[in-house]
Structures are given as C-alpha cells and as structure tokens.
Design brief:
Blueprint: E1 2-6, H1 14-26, H2 30-33, H3 42-55, E2 62-65, H4 71-78, E3 83-88, H5 92-107, E4 111-117, H6 123-135, E5 139-144, H7 150-154, H8 166-182
Parallel strand pairs: 1-2, 1-3, 3-4, 4-5
C-alpha cells in the first residue's frame, strides 16, 4: 500500500510529517540508516526517491513525501496512490490548497485523510478545516502543535528524538489513527 503525503503548497510541514511517519513505521533513524545527515529535506527526498525500494523491498507499506505546487504535479502524485494524507495549515491559502488537493483526490477516487499541522496558530481556521473535512466525508487523522517542532527541525533531528514533546505525541497518535484506517 502506498500512502502519499501531499500539500498544495510548500512550508506546511509535509516533509517533517512524512519523515516522522517513516520513523514511526520502520523504527529506523533516517539520518544514520541511509546516510542523510545534513541538508534536509532536499537530500532526504532525493535519496529516498533513488533508493526507497531498496529499503522497502519486503515491506507492504510505502510512505511517499510528494511534491507540492502545480496541479499536474499533484495529479501525478495521486496516481498510483492507495491513500493520500493531505497536510494542511490553518491559513486562508492553506485551506484553499487543501480544497484543491481534496477535489483532485475525489476525481481519482483516492481515499483521503487530513492532518492539520500547526493547528494552534489559527484555531478559528483549524475549526473551519475540521468542518470542511467532516462535510466532505474525509478523515481527520491528526492535529499537530506548532511550538515544539521547531527545535527538532533546527537541530536536524527526527521529531521522535523529542518523545516528550506534544508534537511527537500528536504525530504518534496520528500514525495510530492512520494505521487504524488502512489496516
């Protein structure tokens, strides 16, 4: 099964969430296991695209951090996916991008889940996103806090190294929610 992690725009935390889910699923530390230490996310994404099958040859689950931006890039990410996890941020543009990605997922009949990243930066917009998810019959699998993720990103360490953080707890709960829907 392939889970594609998507967002309609950059900077919403899609790569951080995708790499955290990989960490939780496989128990590997990406930086040490596949030799990526600095220059995240660029080297990480390129290395996983080039070598992902080598590390996943016996696995039943592929978590893919997909590109953002143009409609054609999003469509090519959706095609071949069994499930799409859309990472949204609670801003006006984040909500508009979420609606655009969801519409494309619906066009291709792909099961769609939503995560609201940095939900605490605008709780009113987070509530609007939650209402949209409910009205569209989608699945809200997680809401991630903004504040304590920054340290992990600044240190170029996986979020699981901060297991006492609210963000790690939220991502871990989200992973369990995802597994409940796909297994």
């Amino acid at each position: 099964m392939k889970i594609s992690i998507l967002s309609g725009k950059g900077g919403v935390g899609k790569t951080t969430i995708a790499s955290s889910l990989v960490e939780l699923d496989n128990g590997i530390t990406l930086g040490t296991e596949i030799g990526v230490v600095k220059d995240l996310p660029g080297k990480l994404i390129n290395h996983l695209r080039e070598n992902g099958r080598e590390f996943n040859s016996d696995e039943q689950l592929i978590i893919s951090d997909e590109s953002t931006g143009s409609e054609s890039a999003i469509i090519s990410s959706i095609i071949g996916s069994d499930v799409v996890l859309v990472v949204a941020e609670p801003t006006k543009s984040g909500f508009e991008h979420l609606m655009r990605v969801v519409a494309l997922c619906e066009q291709f009949g792909v099961f769609t889940m939503v995560c609201i990243n940095k939900f605490d930066i605008n709780e009113e917009m987070s509530n609007k996103i939650e209402e949209f998810v409910k009205n569209e019959g989608l699945v809200l699998v997680g809401k991630i806090q903004h504040n304590d993720v920054i340290e992990a990103i600044d240190d170029l360490k996986p979020i699981k190294d901060y297991e006492n953080s609210k963000a790690f707890s939220s991502i871990k709960d989200m992973w369990q929610n995802i597994r409940n829907y796909i297994c």
